[in-house]
Please model this.
Amino acid sequence: MNFNEDKEYICPVCGRTFFSQDSYPGCDFCSNHELTIYTNEMAKEINDEIDKMSPLEFRENLKFEPRAQFYYELEKGDSKEQEKSKRSAVYHELLYKKYVYNSPLFDKAKFDMRAEWEYENAVEMEEGYRKRQEEKNKPRCPKCGCTEFQMVPRKWSPFTGFLTNKVDRVCVKCKTRY
Ligand SMILES: [Zn+2]
Ligand SMILES: [Zn+2]
Model:
């Protein structure tokens, strides 16, 4: 049996990082096959480097890509998450400095297009997620699951017997009150 391992790669042409199990993987953005294997040691080296940085060096390497900027805006009000995002931005800049910018294969135009593409994917995913959440939070008929209903005033409370200004939902499909 042949179990292919999931390996992570960096594309020196466009800066894309991605996982693949293929024996001859190509970049999932620009299709380039001359890839660098992205190892845990490389990640550790970069993280050690960040830990030793002066605040100035950190600032100098703080470059938000469009996708990172998008998430950073979403995290407004959560300074802990924003700190993590800043570190991640510095991490990526160092990764590119080591394995992308200086590569003879590096292509700035493709690098920028890749960054833009990742941003658009992030926006799309975020919108999809928000829509699914909205759908999930919609009130649903407990009997048939329908989300369409009419509001009907409740004349009196069954608990107190007093008049009330509360409203009931009535399912348009099966007429269940809920
Ligand atoms: Zn690529
Ligand atoms: Zn119903």
